């Protein structure tokens, strides 16, 4: 099992209108889609990330709860929080775009004159 906590860099912008907890969610989703975080990777503990971001623990907890509800993360009690081994289909579809089949290509309708 990999432990990329040292490499995970999450930046938030306090000037944005998007709440901090949603910025955290978006950063994690982007890191998972970009495969910087992979299934089974451990993510920072709530308190550690709250300290790193200089924000309240409850803010990070809200973000983690949303990510768990959406299937991005799994909480394993004292063992910690990990990237889900069964990521949402939307993430998997974005991560591996399929090649279009000939049948998928829309056909142009003949012009009526």
From TrEMBL:
Q: What positions belong to coiled-coil segments?
A: none
- Cite the GO molecular-function annotations of the record: DNA binding; DNA-binding transcription factor activity
InterPro entries, per the entry: HTH_trans_reg/aminotransferase, Tscrpt_reg_HTH_GntR, WH-like_DNA-bd_sf, WH_DNA-bd_sf
| Residues annotated as domain HTH gntR-type | 18-86
Pfam families given in the database record: GntR (PF00392)
> For this UniProt entry, which segments traverse the membrane?
none
**Keyword annotations from UniProtKB, A to Z:** DNA-binding, Pyridoxal phosphate, Transcription, Transcription regulation
Task: Note the superkingdom of the native organism.
Answer: Bacteria
Which SUPFAM superfamilies did the record assign? Winged helix' DNA-binding domain
Provide the protein name. HTH gntR-type domain-containing protein
Species name for this entry?
A: Caballeronia zhejiangensis
């Amino acid at each position: 099992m990999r432990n990329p906590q040292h490499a995970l860099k999450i930046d938030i912008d306090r000037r944005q209108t998007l709440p901090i907890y949603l910025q955290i969610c978006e950063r994690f989703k982007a890191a998972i889609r970009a495969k910087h975080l992979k299934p089974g990777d451990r993510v920072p503990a709530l308190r550690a990330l709250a300290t790193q971001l200089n924000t309240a623990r409850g803010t990070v907890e809200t973000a983690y709860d949303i990510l768990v509800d959406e299937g991005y993360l799994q909480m394993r009690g004292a063992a910690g929080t990990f990237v889900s081994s069964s990521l949402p289909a939307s993430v998997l579809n974005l991560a591996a775009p399929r090649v279009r089949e000939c049948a998928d290509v829309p056909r142009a309708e003949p012009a009526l004159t």
